[in-house]
Amino acid sequence: RKEVEQDPGPFNVPEGATVAFNCTYSNSASQSFFWYRQDCRKEPKLLMSVYSSGNEDGRFTAQLNRASQYISLLIRDSKLSDSATYLCGNAGNMLTFGGGTRLMVKP
Amino acid sequence: DVKVTQSSRYLVKRTGEKVFLECVQDMDHENMFWYRQDPGLGLRLIYFSYDVKMKEKGDIPEGYSVSREKKERFSLILESASTNQTSMYLCASSGTIAGAYNEQFFGPGTRLTVL
């Protein structure tokens, strides 16, 4: 089993929709988690850090469920510019990334 | 603003050539990383370094070596480039909080093509 797993998608949603994706992790000792956004042919950029139960930044909300060992990313009121690949990572003695979930927001 | 820079955005080399990829960070981070990213395979860790002159193998170190002579600089070396090393190479750096790696900041990437 991979240490961090994500549904690769793509998730195709209309503008204005709410979309959520999950990321499961196997290392129960992981202390901190991160969501990155990666545009095509660009580097990943940090979207949000999650150190406790969750974090919210505008339209983006990350939730951590330690009992079930997953983190989720919720995007409300999707914009065309939200189209990207979203990577999750968890940090313990090493930062490990999932394979990414591709989101496509359509007009 | 945090900054990680990589020496080249695009590079074309021939099979058998020695290739140097350089990465510089200005955040005084202890940790630096080299990844390669291929379609469908995600980010794969090649090597990382947690201090000057220290290095650790990642998941796919074969065919690569690294050098960290100064805190801000981490080099990836392909001793004899092969076509299966054609990829996007990403450098990252991070600090450490309470013994755990903090979020990583990535450079813009080097798209290497080996002919």
| Helix percentage range of chain B | under 10%
Roughly what is the average pLDDT of chain B, rounded to an integer? 93
Question: What is the CA-CA span between the terminal residues of chain A?
Answer: 37 Å
Give me the count of strands of chain B: 13
Count of separate DSSP helical elements of chain B: 0
- Strand percentage of chain B, roughly? over 45%
Sheet with the most strands, sense and barrel status of chain B: 7 strands, mixed
Count the DSSP helices of chain A: 0
> What letter string, H or E per element, gives the SSE order of chain A?
EEEEEEEEEEE
Structural class of chain B: mainly beta
Nearest-integer average pLDDT of chain A: 91
What is the 3D shape of chain B?
globular
Task: Determine the most extensive contact between two protein chains.
Answer: A-B, 21 and 24 residues
Distance between the termini of chain B: 37 Å
User: Low-confidence spans of chain A: pLDDT under 50, at least 5 residues?
Assistant: none
Q: Radius of gyration of chain B from the CA trace? A: 13 Å
Structural class of chain A: mainly beta
The parts of chain B where pLDDT drops under 50 for at least 5 residues are: none
